[in-house]
Amino acid sequence: MFHITYFGKKIRKLRKEKNMKLSDVAEQLHISPSYLGEIERGTTSPSIEIVVLIANYWGISLEDFCHLQTSPDIEQTFYLGFTELEYQLFYNILVQYLFLKQEGEHHF
User: Fold this and answer.
1) Which of 13, 15, 19, 66 is the most core-located residue (most Cβ within 10 A)?
2) Which sign does the torsion angle of CA 28, 24, 56, 68 carry?
3) Is the predicted pLDDT of residue 1 greater than 70, yes or no?
4) Which DSSP letter does residue 2 get?
5) Sorting pLDDT into bands at 50, 70 and 90, what band is 3?
6) How do residues 98-107 score in pLDDT, each as one tens digit?
7) What's the predicted TM-score (pTM) here?
8) Measured on CA atoms in the order 9, 13, 15, 20, is the torsion positive or negative?
9) Beta carbons of 66 and 1 less than 8 angstroms apart
10) How do residues 8-56 score in pLDDT, each as one tens digit?
11) Whether residue 97 has pLDDT greater than 90
12) What is the CA radius of gyration of the chain?
């Protein structure tokens, strides 16, 4: 499960450590400052695309903000079935897709 509150606190801390304004970071990410502020406060649930975009901008791993549940029902989710290699491949494909989408490419 992804922890948006912890993620928001982490990216706010990184931004403040770099003495960057919320508006400057939001502009570089092509999102509104108010939306980025909501993400930093953990009051909104951004799409995976936005989460990956922000994580890549700050050079942080999404794995730091996730934990696996121990419930038997977790077996029904695709995540637990991923090997580390499969997870990395999926992550790299998603990052490449987001980059191409940002650059205006509509295909792989």
Assistant:
1) 15
2) negative
3) no
4) B
5) confident
6) 777 766 655 5
7) 0.60
8) positive
9) yes
10) 888 999 999 999 999 999 999 999 999 999 999 989 888 888 888 998 8
11) no
12) 15
Pair 38, 44: CB distance under 8 Å: yes
CB 3 within 8 A of CB 34: no
Phi-psi region of 42 (alpha: psi -120 to 50; beta: other; left: phi over 0): left
Nearest-angstrom CA–CA distance, 82 and 77: 10
How many helices and strands (H and E) does the chain possess? 6, 0
Tokens (6 digits) for 103: 């650059």
Amino acid, single-letter form, for residue 77: T
Locate 41 and state its tokens. 């406060």
Strand blocks (E) in the chain? none
Cβ within 8 Å of residue 72, ≥6 positions away = none
Contact 37, 48 (CB under 8 A): no
Amino acid at 65: F
Quote the CA–CA distance of 2 and 25 in Å, as a whole number: 22
